[in-house]
Specification:
binds ligand C2E, alpha/beta, 5-stranded parallel β-sheet, 8-stranded mixed beta barrel, binds calcium ion
Length: about 400
Amino acid sequence: MDDPKSSHQRLLILDDDPMTGQTIMSIAEFAGIDARFTPSPTEFFQLVDQWNPTHIAIDLIMPEMDGVQVMTQLAQHQCTAQIIITSGVGTRVLEAAGRSAAEHGLNIAGVLAKPFTPASLRRLLADAGPPVGRRNKAAPPVAAQEAELSAATLHAAITSGAISAYYQPKIDCITGTLAGFEVLARWTDPVLGPIPPTRFIPLAESVGLIDELTLQILHEVLPWFVPLAHSYVTQPLALPLHLAINISARTLSNTALFERLRAECQAMQIDPEQLTFELTETSAMEDPTASLDLLTRLRMHGFHLSIDDFGTGFSSMLQLVRLPFSEIKVDRSFVMTAMTSQESRTVIKFIVDLGHSLGLRCTAEGVEDLATLAYLQQINCDLAQGFAIARPMPGAEALHWVQDYLVK
Ligand code: C2E
Ligand code: CA
Ligand code: CA
């Protein structure tokens, strides 16, 4: 038997069709890769344990156990081999299987639609990079990065003001007028460099610092917003601008925070109607009853509520109907691909129509080109936000941007 500890690439193939299995094996061997093939899931899992393959090719449709079940079990085995999914099913199913595997934490080298060429298989094997061991032998590099970011570092960043607010404009799709801004948190650590919110927001949530972070952001953005909030008085044709703030579901149980916010808005003469809280679909779900109570009260006080990243969660419809939202935000993954994918356009139009039928304002975020903006106009989307209009900017820069934009 080959030495399982050798750094040589080892490809294990599971396919109920011996012809396909043999073909993949020959292509791999021709490329200098050790390969084994089995049609039996039982033997396959034995080989995974004993032979420790660096690469695995799995057929999606098999009589005994389907490819998704195989991948679920591989994930339980903490398998770190590069996985290639092969099948004769359509590319949409293949891609869905690939996403499912990636969500299970498996390393997906790619999908291979049958019939495939030897070159496409070789490319996947080559792109997959150097062989890796089992997960417990080599921790993924991401874990090391995460370790550097401690709750204490985050807390210090919040209290020192190192986490600050950036502002990204939202415009009216039809008229092009400025409608408002979304506030996005930014953190640049002197040692670690820029740390994306997708990293520190989940950390803040898990270590109980999210409310402190939200308050710190609110204290920065409200004074910034005051002159803009009142500006429509001096420009009679303009509508009141609004400011959108991302709120974590955990914060929804903190009624004191919202009471305080209401008092601060009153003191600064900001109409609650000018503030929107953006909640992601999945986050709004966690405690349905408590969320419903607080969200209803916030709406009663005039604050607007937006359901963020719409289209990515699983309970979107339920939440949309149950909770008193006033805005729906089409997830940027659809908007960014609008010009290249008919499916994305269908989803966007569906969400916009759905939103309008429920009396909600619709915003598309992730608008990266003018063609997408034109499409959004065509389907009557209300607001647009994205790099094609402006990137998120620090406060002073955003104020200059407003001046320039109003002159144009
Ligand atoms: P989000 O609320 O969906 O925010 C929109 C994200 O899309 C932002 O990412 C923004 O920079 C990005 N974006 C805007 N236009 C475009 C575009 O045209 N193309 C592309 N590719 N991206 C665009 P960012 O700033 O990295 O924020 C990521 C997420 O972190 C946010 O997603 C939000 O869920 C969360 N987040 C950010 N700031 C806060 C905060 O203060 N509190 C909470 N709770 N969450 C926050
Ligand atoms: Ca948002
Ligand atoms: Ca979003």
